[in-house]
Amino acid sequence: RDRGEGLMMQGRIFISLLAAAALMAAAAVPVAAAPPADHAELWVQRTIYTHELGLDRPVGLTIGSESGVIYAIDDGSQKLVGITAYEEMADSISVAGISDPRNVSLDQPRERVLVLNAEGLVARDVNHGGSRSVARPAVDDPAGMTIDPTTGTTYILDARTPRLVIVDEAGGQTIVTLNELARNELSGIAFNPSDG
């Protein structure tokens, strides 16, 4: 399978997961409530039943940019559990210091997992253990994190302001305000490898 097909498969899986999350959130809305006219329709491309894989309450996701493996974090766990596109178990990665699964991201090209917690942004080596501090991002309410696998740049969603805090490889920070989203409750962020 060539890289283009792999990216397309990753995109489909990612969209399926987002669609499933949106449908679960929509299930909590009373039947009488109609969605706003500006909302797009969602289609479920595929469903993976994680209970059969030992994940009873997956609460965080990250995707391996090179392997296409989906890594889920079970509620209260300190481990990323890999699931292939064929719904089979892949490897698992133990990661200490996970306080909020939305703020964990796998940086496969650099063989590290980034975790945002009270210590700041910490890079944990996947193969050799050990960790190092990357930065202390200026975030009030971190509500999601993702990585550009090409550059290693980390994007953190600060839901309170709302804004994006962008941390480069050297620890430098850039802030982009998201004023037009201030009325929304924000949670989660993803990076599209096709167009950045």
Describe the structure.
There is one protein chain. This protein is mostly beta strands and 196 residues long. It contains 1 helix and 12 strands. The chain has one helix spanning 3-27, and strands spanning 58-63, 70-74, 79-83, 89-94, 104-107, 112-117, 120-125, 131-135, 142-147, 154-158, 163-167, 173-177. The protein has a 4-stranded antiparallel β-sheet with strand order 1-2-3-4, with helices on one face. Strand 1 (58-63) and strand 2 (70-74) form a beta hairpin. The longest helix has 25 residues, at 3-27. The radius of gyration is 17 Å and the shape is globular. The chain starts with a helix and ends in a 19-residue tail after the last strand. The relative contact order is 0.11.
Strand order of the largest sheet: 1-2-3-4
Number of helices: 1
Tally of DSSP β-strands: 12
The run of helices and strands is HEEEEEEEEEEEE
Strand fraction band? 25-35%
Structural class: mainly beta
| Bulk shape | globular
- Radius of gyration over all CA atoms, rounded: 17 Å
